[in-house]
Structure formats: C-alpha cells, structure tokens
Amino acid sequence: MSGSVSTPASAGGVAWGTPAARWMLTATVLGSGMALLDSTVVTVALPAIQRDLGTGLSGLQWIVNGYMLTLSALILLSGSLADRFGRVRLLMTGTSLFALASALCTFAPTLGWLIAGRILQGVGGALLTPGSLAILQAGFREDDRARAIGAWSGLTGVAAAVGPFLGGWLVQIGDWRLIFLINLPFAVLVLLIARFKVPESHDASASRSLDYGGALLGVIALGGITYALIQWGAQGGTPAVWTSTAVGVSALVAFLLLEGRRRAPMLPLDIFRSVPFSVTNAATVVLYAALGTLLFLMVIYLQEVAGYSPIAAGAASLPLTIMMLLLSARSGQLASRIGPRPQLVAGPLVLAAGLFLLSRMGPDAPYVPEVFPGVLLVALGMSMTVAPLTATVLASAPERHSGLASGVNNTVARGGQLIGVAAIPALAGIGGKHDETSGTTGLAEHFGTALLILAGLAVAASLCALFLPRGRMPEAGDTAKEPLAERPQRFCGVSGPPLRACPGSIAGTREDGRSSGTPDQSW
To answer: What one-character DSSP code corresponds to residue 14?
Structure first.
C-alpha cells in the first residue's frame, strides 16, 4: 500500500477469513446490495405505482430516471470524496441518505414526493457503492483484495438475481411501498457494522480541489435534457420543453468547457483522444439505452397488456441476469485470446435479433413461445458483449486513468439508459399527448415499434465496433504492465458495466505513480 493511504491495518490490511474481514465484507455487500436490489425491484412495481398514484407513462419514466439522473452525474465525483473524507464515512453518509430517501418513497403521498425520494436515492447510491469498493481495496491485504472484491461482486449479483422475484412477490402479497420499506433494516445493519466494526481509511494525498462545479453542471445538463424528452412525449413541443432543452444543452456545453480548463477535472477530456476508448463508450451508450428501455417497457407490457402477475413479469427477464453471471467471465477470456472486435460486432447483432423477436409479441404473450426465445437471445448478446466492451475500455486508457476509464464507462451506460427511457417511448408513439392518467396509452399498439428502434440501436453498436483494430487490443502508452488476458474480470448485475478487479492492482495510479487507493468505481 502507498504510504499516503491510511489503511485499517498498517501491516498491510486484514487477512481473508478473519472476523475483521467478515465484518468488512458484510457491511460493503449489504450496502451495495441494497442499492442494486432497489434498482431491480422498482421496475416490477411500476404498474402498481401507476394505478395507486394515477400517473401516466411520464410519471413512471421519472420514477426510473430520477434515480438514474443523480447516480450517473455524481458517481465520478464520489470516488474522490471517499479518498478525501474517508471511505467508511462516505459509505455511512450514502447509506443514511439512501435510507432517508427510502423512507420518503415508502410514505410518499404523491408522485412528486416519490420522484423526490428517488432522486435522493440516486445521491445515496452514488456515494455508498464506490465507498464500498474503496473500503475493500484499502482494508484487505494485497494478496486477498481480488478474492474480497470477487466475493463482493458475486454476492451483490445475487441481489440483482432475486430482485425481480422479491419485488413481484412484495407487490403481489402487499403493497408497492414495501419495496422501499425493506431497505430500512438493511441500512440500519450497514450503519451499525460500519460504525463499530469497520476501521476508517482515507488517502492523505488526495486532491483538495474537488470538481463540485462539474458535478452540478452534469446534474443540470442531464436533468434538463431528460425533462425535455419526457415532457415532449407527454405534451409535445411546449415552451417548457424548449426552455428545458436550452438549459440542458447550455449546461452540457458549460460542463465541457469547465472540464477542459480545470487542473483537476472530474472528467479529463484528453482520455477521449483514444479512438478505441471513444468508440467503445459510444457503443456502450446505445447498448445500454436499448437494454434499459427494454427492461422498462417489457415489465409494464407484460403486466398491463399481457396480464402477467407482478412476480411473473419480474421473473421474465431472469435469464438475462443468470446468463450474464455465468457467461461474462468466459466471454472476457475468449476476447483475451481472439481480440474484442469479433464479439463486439457479433454480440449486438444477437441482441438485435432478440429484440426483433420480442417486438413480435402478441397481446397474450405466452412466455415459452413468445417471450423466452427473445429474452434468451438478448441475454446471449449482452453476455457476448459486456466483458470485451469493458476490457477494451480499460486497455485503451492509460493505467493512471484505469479507475477513471471504468467510472466513465459506467457513467455513460447509465446516461444511455436515462436518455433511452426518456426518448424511445415518445419516438415510438407510446404515452400520448396531454394524457397523465393512462400509462399504457399506445403501449399495446406501439410496443413492437419501440423494440424495433431498440434493435436499430443494437445494430448501431455493432457498426461502432467496426472502427476497432483487428486482433488483440494494443496497450495504450503507459497502460497496465499485465497483458489483457491476465487481467481477470468479475461481473454482476445488468444495470451497468461490470466491476474490474485485478489481483494486486485494483487501485488506480496517480500522475506520480503512487496508488490512489481507489478501485474502479463501476457497479
């Protein structure tokens, strides 16, 4: 460990299998798992929320996007906050905010209160997960870090797998508010364990200049553009829509100008000079826009049009989570041998084929003949794609920016989902103008159109991959000394690109070559 990093054990960290290690892993898994579980259970509950609060599709879009908005805008900043102010402190702060927001969502009397709670949940989620990973990196001894983060990855992946079942079951037996209420006991456990059993760590050399202005402009840019897209679908081109568009675009331009001038920016723009890095991030945007919008629309369609129960609708996408957990590591190993280009061309095309099959679902949509084949192809396409996509992002960025590269890739993935959920339904004719009481307006008629648009996005991702070099990815300048084949990957969930975990070298590296003590922050 670097001399600048204050660690829980000055002798090099705690050993795997000790009581201290178990407490540390328990706190981080419960905290991150709580946030990941929440992101999967909410989607299943959307039709029930719609009926209870009397909202239209635009309200459901905000329930999903309110969380994604603050999460995607703040996750890059949160790693720096953990280094400066303390990783355990950041975990506890994020968990407290997430618990407060969950209570607000549980007892929300109106749609506006629920959306406010979801926005605050995104802030908490952005703080607690990078803090969880940083605690593991700083707390475990070097030989055990990869094992600890692998365990974290697998256990939080279980949360993604059980989320649809749990969400559907809670909605079916009780009330949609239970999906937020279950976060509170988990949050209390995390706070107690973190306070009394997990020692603090921080990076004494962390920069004192944090890019709060960049984070604020990022929130304004994403918020303005998202509001414009959602309201355009609900109300058409009103003055509020055009004003929001102008505010969002202006904030985006200001963000880029600020990041280009700051000495310590949240997002160093020079990282995009690498063509493979830029190409793979462009593919990430359209891929996750397609996946996020599919999961959003399909669970509503299956319940509101096909008459599925909440638990059946939640379980419909389970093959996607299972196949990604089982196949992503093997996909990464294959890409190491043959290069990422073949899989990044073929995988999105398989995804597009699955989306095409799902676009042909009828109003009854029996699962085995009409839903399962398409979901299976979507799962196979994403399993082929995600591992080489992330490996290419990391291999095409300098080693000193490895953590940043992973964080950027995760951020653009969530930004793609944010824009996709906001824009695609309106483009397909779903939602209706001036209709805030029928969330399924046009859904039965235009669901197939929406999925054909998503299939087009998947094809666009495949075309992006044609700009990558053939063969194995060349290492960029001062990238990691290990060849790509020797950098094992851990994978979990489907809501964003996977965690990258390298034995003995999980932390990023500063300009002077010292460890930053901060692991890659995607989750």
So the answer is: B
Cβ atoms of residues 65 and 173 within 8 Å: no
**How many angstroms separate the Cα of 61 from the Cα of each of 163, 205, 229, 335, 497?**
19, 41, 10, 36, 22
H or E element, residue 506: none
Q: pLDDT digit string (tens) for 100-128?
A: 999 999 999 999 999 999 999 989 988 88
For residue 383, give the nearest of 424, 343, 341, 438 by alpha carbon: 343
Instruction: State the Cα torsion 440-446-449-450 to the nearest 10°.
Output: -10
Q: How many angstroms separate the CA atoms of 415 and 289, rounded?
A: 8
Query: Which pair of structure tokens corresponds to residue 286?
Result: 């359209």
| Planar angle of CA 298, 99, 163, nearest 5 degrees | 30
DSSP 399: G
**The two three-digit tokens of residue 297, written as one number:** 């629309």
pLDDT higher than 60, residue 493:
no
pTM: 0.81
CA distance 9 to 132: 17
For residue 385, give both structure tokens: 């794609």
Q: Which residues pair with 5 in a beta bridge?
A: 203
Contact predicate 248/224, CB 8 Å: yes
Question: Taking the CA of residue 124 as centre, how many other CA atoms within 13 Å lie in the half-sphere pointing to its CB?
Answer: 28
Which pair of tokens denotes residue 512?
A: 């002077």
Q: Give the Cβ contact number of residue 345 at 10 Å.
A: 18
Taking alpha carbons only, the member of 498, 467, 269 closest to residue 389 is: 498
Q: What tokens does 380 get?
A: 């196979």
Task: Tell me the residue length of the chain.
Answer: 523
Residue appearing with tokens 């957990």: 325
